Amino acid sequence: DELAAVAAALGEAGAEVESQRLVYLPQNPVEITDVSVAKQVLRLYAALDDYDDTQNVFANFDIPEPVMEQVEL
Questions:
Q1: What is the DSSP code (8-state) at residue 48?
Q2: Which of 45, 46, 40, 39 is nearest to 68 (CA)?
Q3: Does residue 71 contact residue 43 with C-beta atoms inside 8 Å?
Q4: pLDDT tens digits for 28-64?
Q5: How far apart are alpha carbons 52 and 32 in whole angstroms?
C-alpha cells in the first residue's frame, strides 16, 4: 500500500529511483535436495514462465548449489 509513497520520499530525499515494484519473498522457503525433484520443479517453473499469458512467476523453493550443479549436467 505504501510503495508509491516510499518511492516518492526516496526521490525527494535525493535518491535516484530507477524502478519501483513489489517483490514477493516467501515466508516458508522449501529446500529441494533431490536432483529429480529439482529438475521437475525447474521444468514447471520454466513452463509457467514461458506461457504467453504469464506476467510473473513466484516460487518458494530453494535449490542448493551442489544440487543445481547436478541438475545442469
A1: H
A2: 39
A3: no
A4: 999 999 999 999 999 999 999 999 998 888 899 999 9
A5: 27
Q: How far apart are CA 2 and CA 5, in angstroms?
A: 5
Q: What grid cell was written down for 29?
A: 522457503
Report the alpha-carbon distance of residue 61 to residue 28 in Å, rounded: 9
- Taking the complete model, does pTM exceed 0.70, yes or no? no
Residue 35's pLDDT is what? 96
Q: Count CB atoms within 10 A of the CB of residue 48.
A: 13
> Between 25 and 61, where is the model more confident?
61
Taken as a whole, the chain contains a residue count of 73
Report yes or no: 50 and 43 within 8 Å, Cβ to Cβ.
no
